[in-house]
Structures are given as C-alpha cells and as structure tokens.
Amino acid sequence: MTEALFLNPVFQDRIWGGTKLHDYFGYDIPSDTTGEDWAISAHPNGPSVIKNGEFKGKTLAELWEEKPALFGNPKEAVFPLLTKILDANTDLSVQVHPNDEYAKVHENGELGKTECWYIIDCEPGAELIYGHKAVSRAEFSSWAKNGEWDKLLRKVTIKPGEFYYVPSGTIHALGTGTLVLETQQSSDTTYRVYDYDRKDADGNLRELHLDKAIDVTTAPHVDAKLDIQTETHGGLTETTFVSNDFFSVYKWEVDGKAEFAAKAPYTLVSILDGEAELTIDGTKQSIKKGDHFILPNDVKTWEIEGKMTAIVSNPPVK
Fold first, then answer.
1. Which of 51, 86, 159, 290 is found 20 to 30 A from 20 (Cα to Cα)?
2. Same domain, yes or no, for 168 and 299?
3. How confident is the model at residue 305, as a pLDDT?
4. Do both 125 and 200 map to the same domain?
5. Looking at residue 45, what is its pLDDT?
6. Is residue 222 part of a domain?
7. What is the pLDDT along the chain (318 residues), one digit of tens a residue?
8. Record's Pfam families (predicted)?
9. 292 near 226, Cβ under 8 Å?
C-alpha cells in the first residue's frame, strides 16, 4: 500500500541540552539534558526506525539500501539528508563544518555539512553566533588562537519564525534558550572552535579542533543570499526558504484543505504545530505536532486538511 513512512525519534544527550523536546512536543525524553531529536536520520550515529506499515521496525538506512525504489532509485550511496530538532538550553560550542571535498579526505569519506535552521521558539533576546569579523584566514587564526572571542565572533539577535542558512565553512553556534529545526546533509562532523572552557561529566575539557576549523572556515565571512518566496494555493501557504545542490526547504502552513503534488523523488515532513488529516490514495491518517514522516517515491499526490505548520525538505532534483 502506498503510504507515508513515520519515524520514531532518536534522542541524543548533550551537555547543553534541556527539556524542551518534552515540554514543547511532548516527547518521552531520556534525560533533562536531551539536546537533539534526530527526527529523520539514516546516519549510523542515530538511525531512525520506521514505526508503521509494511516496513515497521526497519531503519531508514536499511530501507535506503534494500528498497531503493521507495526513493526513486537514487545514485547516492547514503541517505543524503538529516532532520533534527535542537534544544539549546545553554550555548552550543562555537563550531564550523567542512565541505564534501574536505570531509572526504579528512573524515573517512563522511559527507560535508551544509545546514539550515528554522527558529521554532526562543527566549526574548536570544542570539546566534553567525559568522565572524576577521578579514582574512590569517586574522581569523590569530584571533582564535589568542582567544579574542569578543573581537572575532558575530552575534545576531533572533526571533521565532526566522530562517538561517549555514553553508559549510560558516562559523556558528546556537545560543541559550533556542529551539530549532535543523535540515542538514547527513553528516556528524563538527569542528569545535571554542567551548567556553566547559568540562564534561568526567571533569575534562571538551576537545577542540582549531587547526581543522582554520582550514575550512570561510574568511572573510559572507552572509548567504536567500531569495525567500511565499505562495498561497487554496488552504496552503508555502514558503520556499532555500533550494540548492544540497536540499530544498519549505514551510507549509495549512488552514483548511490543501492539495499537493510531489516535487522530488521523496519528501521529508516535520509537523511543528497543529493537527490535520493526511490523505493518500483515499486512505486518511491523522497527523499532529511532533510527527515526522517521509512521503516516498510512489506517493505522487496527497491532501492535507486541518490547521498545521510543517517544515519540509527534499533532495535536489537533478
């Protein structure tokens, strides 16, 4: 039967995590320092498990390998995308990610990591670190090695509903009191630049990766140019945040009945608010805040009726 693939969340404990994944979404989290929900993941460090239908109990990675037709018989060796929800109860480390070419050489063939953030919620006055103020790699290296963080790092005040695109090479960090949905390449490679001299549970300073970070950081920083477009069709308001060689990311705001046609071989959907009814080939299913699912390749059209907000992504259409 043609149907959506719903996934169980994979929770990750983090030194900076909190309880918002429970408080906001109602998830049964494993600890009071739960920092990440790997919501749609085939990465070996946190593979999602299908929770419904014919493939219940299989991981997304297993499906990608065993049932490629579900994804349009892709050429990529690994599922290319990863959807997370992050609860920054305290500041995340200042970090940067490599591109595909650098990661392939230095990280055992891992993908690089270009990502983007949709701000679900944040405290008043919450900030991101987004970029830096050095005019060259040499200046970046000097300021970083001397710990001149106030001089180096660029801070941006944020509010709910905003979108930030974070290409590989971008210095960044989520700040305290921020809940975001992150769409990224399926990679777990992070180079920490600065971590506020925090110690882990064993009393050790967390590892930094300053030399690799200097290698991959874009200097000078350049803000990503986005062409955000919003269109309304019937009961759907669709905002296109970004569409490039890594992914396309949209926001669906449904109020009433909305009809959809597939734009790509498969579509990743995360419900951030509300509830609705999803209809595929005449079969109806309730969907609600906190649900994450994939519409596979054999789902060409569908309807959603209700009131809900979702962040949606798909691979590039080549």
1. 51
2. no
3. 98
4. yes
5. 97
6. no
7. 589 999 999 999 999 999 999 999 999 999 999 999 999 999 999 999 999 999 999 999 999 999 999 999 999 999 999 999 999 999 999 999 999 999 999 999 999 999 999 999 999 999 999 999 999 999 999 999 999 999 999 999 999 999 999 999 999 999 999 999 999 999 999 999 999 999 888 889 999 999 999 999 999 999 999 999 999 999 999 999 999 999 999 999 999 999 999 999 999 999 999 999 999 999 999 999 999 999 999 999 999 999 999 999 999 987
8. MPI_cupin_dom (PF21621), PMI_typeI_cat (PF20511)
9. no
SS3 103: helix
Last-in-domain residue among 216, 246, 278: 216
Among residues 261, 257, 265, 268, the alpha carbon closest in space to that of 308 is found at 257
154 tagged catalytic? no
Does 238 count as an annotated binding residue?
no
Query: Binding residue per annotation — 43?
Result: no
Out of 14, 137, 154, 192, the active site residue is 192
User: Do 207 and 251 fall into the same domain?
Assistant: no
Q: Where are the alpha helices (DSSP H) in the chain?
A: 20-23, 60-66, 100-106, 137-145, 149-152, 210-216
pLDDT at residue 200 in the model: 84
Same domain, 261 and 194: no
Sequence-distant (≥ 6) Cβ neighbours of residue 120 within 8 angstroms:
24, 85, 160, 179, 180, 181, 272
Q: Are residues 175 and 267 located together in one domain of the fold? A: no
Q: 190 with 42, same domain?
A: yes
Closest to 178 (Cα-Cα) out of 27, 292, 21, 38: 21
Buried b vs exposed e over 175-187: b needs ≥16 C-beta within 10 Å? bbbbbbbbbbbbb
115 is in an annotated binding site: yes
Boundaries of domain holding 238: 229-314
**DSSP category for residue 55:** G
Per the structure, how many domains does the chain have? Answer: 2
Tokens representing 85?
């929800």
CATH number at 119 reads: 2.60.120.10
Instruction: Find the radius of gyration of the CA atoms of the chain.
Output: 20
The first and second tokens of residue 207, run together, are 């590892």
